User: Fold this.
Amino acid sequence: MSKVKYYYDPDTLSYRKIEPKKSKRYRNLFFFLLGSALFGFLGLIILLNTSWVNTPKELSLDREVRNYELQFEILSKKMEQMEQVLANIEERDNNIYRLYFEANPIPEEQRRAGFGGVNRYKSLEGFNNSEIIINATQQLDIIQKQMVIQSKSLDEIAKLAEEKEKLLAAIPAIQPVRNEDLTRMASGYGWRSDPFTKARKMHRGMDFTAPRGTPIYATGDGVVVRADNRSSGYGKHIRIDHGYGYMSLYAHLSKYNVTKKQKVKRGDLIGFIGNTGRSQAPHLHYEVFKDKERINPINFYYGSLTAEEFENMLKFATQENQSLD
Ligand SMILES: [Zn+2]
Assistant:
């Protein structure tokens, strides 16, 4: 309230009120309004900077952030599930597949290794939610790396499986003469009396007695490396190189059905039983080599014989009879 001012009027001999000029009144009003506005504005700024009052926009942002946090939590749970599935695959990989194919298991530290050196997550630091974002990113990076390692391991196993299949096809695993064609069970590997000298001699193969002309089959996949009679005692004979250190030899043939360098599959007809070379009667003398050493072929017939047939053959083959050489 402005002071009321008076002045003495000599004409009326009285004190009269000094009326403020209209323009001055407007000016006062303007300053009053300006002052109020500034005060109000300052108040608003103070209010906005305190945490207990939020604008609608802030409220909606807040809701959104909380929604993100929730989503991150859900993603994190899903990643945990993925990790569990991966861990299960890794376990089977190490304990079944790699074991079966005789590959070394991949150590846990190698599978689960993080990333050392520089901080890969620096750009994610310094925000309110940095921690959950960094954790999730880290988790994903590790899963990604685990998957790469797992995928490589499976590639390796696929290759090993293919090799194993080739190896299994190559090993001389069947009997070279059909069971029903045999007139007498085989004379086996071991000490036998020599048909010519009657002296005890190591017989390093198996004899399959059958009529002349009975078919002889390749016992594993391979390449014919010899089909000739230039090896003393064997007469007309065939040698098949199966790879992996395995070779099979078929002796005393009457006729060949293959030639040198020919590729053969297990079960292919390669020749016919005869009595050529150092042989007393028509029969097949069969040998198996591993790394150039002769081994007992009887250990390989799991491909073609029933358990009973194998038992029978074992019984006959281990009998100390006379070989036919
Ligand atoms: Zn023999």
User: Anything to note?
Assistant: The mean pLDDT is 86. Helices lie at 22-49, 56-100, 108-111, 130-170, 307-318.
